[in-house]
Design a protein that fits this description.
Blueprint: H1 2-8, H2 12-33, H3 35-38, H4 43-63, H5 69-78, H6 90-95, H7 118-146, H8 156-160, E1 164-174, E2 182-187, E3 192-197, E4 212-216, E5 222-224, E6 227-229, E7 232-233, E8 235-237, E9 243-245
Amino acid sequence: QKIEQSLERYRFREAQQELMNIARLGNKYLADEEPWKLIKEDPTRVETIMYIALHIATALAVTSEPFLPFTSAKLKQMLNFAGMSKAPVWEDVLHSDSLIPSGHTIGKSVLLFEKIEDEAIQKQIDKLENSKKANQQAAAANLATAVTPQKELISYEDFAKMDIRIGTILEAEKMPKADKLLILKVDTGLDQRTIVSGIAQSFDPKEIIGKKVTVLANLAPRKLRGVESHGMILMAENKEGKYIFLNPDAEGIANGTEVK
């Protein structure tokens, strides 16, 4: 009854503990009665002991099914449930005084559980380690394939031509009829300028106002959907395909600070 009540309240660990209490009761009963010794002196008493022990085992065969279905099936086979006109069910364990019919023949006993040797445990550990290494190698291979190949070499002079500055987003709004574009007003320290950036699917305009950003300031102006953009916000892309800002972590970096 306790097992049933615990299962109905989804308290599975508590129900399993009660199942183990039935098993402990059966073990204690046999250990206390010692039928293997008593058989020489009082065989009739041993018949009663075995009858009670088999009833406990039958109760375990039924009540263990929600927790150990394969073990329950083994136990039912040993007790020869198939040879009964009506095999015991949960309600019988709760209410019946006799779970096994008179004259019933039980089946051959087998081990319910096998001892796991250290060698078998080590094999499983090695298998897990190999699987872990294989997963790591696959992840590394995927990462390697995901990284964009290096572009052609440029000279230092080419790099020196780029004027990269720290700025702050003052205003942000979505470009009308454009899913990917935001119109930003950015304080670059040199001036306040309009920059059109394709980051609308990664950021809400309201959330990025006041955000420090890294700006390529001397990029030639370009019209995008009728709005002239003066510069480019430098971004990176995370593994989910969302853009992230490239900006200094330290506080107090002034607008207009050059990135060299």
